[in-house]
Known about the structure:
Helices cover 39% and strands 20% of the residues. The protein has 461 residues and is of the alpha+beta class. Strand 5 and strand 6 (137-144) form a beta hairpin. The radius of gyration is 23 Å and the shape is elongated.
Amino acid sequence: MKSLGSRGVCLPRRWVLAPVILAVLACWASTxxxxxxxxxxxxxxxxVGGVSVDASGVVSNADRDASGNLxxxxxxxxxxxxxxxQRTSGLRKVSLRRLEAELKRCFEAGQPLPESAALLAGxxxxxxxxxxxxxxxxxxxxxxxxxxxxxxxxxxGRKSGRPVLLLDDLxxxxxxxxxxxxVLSCSINPTPEGIRRVEALARQVQTGxxxxxxxxxxxxxxxxxxxxxxxxxxxxxxxxxxxxxDYRMKRISMGLEPSPVRGLPSYPEMVKGxxxxxxxxxxRWWLQPDYQPxxxxxxxxxxxxxxxxxxxxxxxxxxxxxxxxxxxxxxDPTAQRWADLMTSxxxxxxxxxxxxxxxxxxMDLAVVAALIVKHRLMAKAGYDFPFLSGATEGLETLKLxxxxxxxxxxxxxxxxxxxxxxxxxxxxxxxxxxxxxxxSPQVAEIYAKATAASHxxxxxx
Length: 461
């Protein structure tokens, strides 16, 4: 058995990073239309990864119509993309100093947030972080494309279909790294009380019982599962991406929804028959960054982020006498095989389920933030970026309903009679990665070519 399980944001006087949305709200003409559009806004803004969160914090699959409304809402509001931003770029440069100046100018003039800034000029990932003390600047470099809106409402590259990076996620990662450097994580776990109730129920199930009735009873006995978020505020888009990716992974792993890629069966399909009752081992899967060591130049001004990928990890938690999960230090062979399949198919999965690509993008931004903080790149640049770092008030990140719990869904494997409960989440610990970089002369070549001395815009190719 697998157990799993909106209202919009307030618009304060301070500037909130809701790409495009604010501009649309300002343009509504009539009160009636404003109310209708505000309701759509409230219903769809919380949708990430096909998952919605209501005002009480309950996570569920988003209604298809709501996802369609999200796409149409954004299509109606989308700004014209400047011609120079529409082209594909192998290495687009984004100046954080000049970006901050542009954002501050718009804020002080009472103008809406430019879509190009909210979408970081179409960056798809971060390959290099470059510091230019002469310009008091830090420059982010990576592949980029012009963007469009896919059927699910994601801003994606026109050519690749990959979600573009969001300024909002960069701000959350950077401010979290500055204020409380720690591991960024989320988890969805059953409660010990629920596990004990399901264990008691499993002992009472008779041979030949209706599987649908048993599943319904288990859903009721296990009850809602708790969602915990650490390292970033739980009401941010960054946190929502972590939770949505974990939620989707769990539903795919336990066959609650079909796998969207070939070669990735559900865990129950892989489990051999045998055994009865509730196992005292709780298979746990989680997603974490899997990067090659960073490269740097001799002066620590040029950094390369290499081999960005995501690995699915697994370990069995041991359920003690009270139903409390405890790490066992070992994994079940079948659970390990499923984790390996998830890892090998992650790139394909990210192509058809954009939230997994968004998760990798958030991992990139977490690495960038940790790098900036750990190696004091702001001090090397000679500028503290007060607007981006949050030291100066005015630039607020988007506030969403915080995910707190998920309703349990149960499915019974036809092989054998054993009840399975899973746990897991997402864990990003970028700090060890940025602590031990390797030196490389090749990074200095990129540094010399990307200098912003001859440019005045906040981005360039």
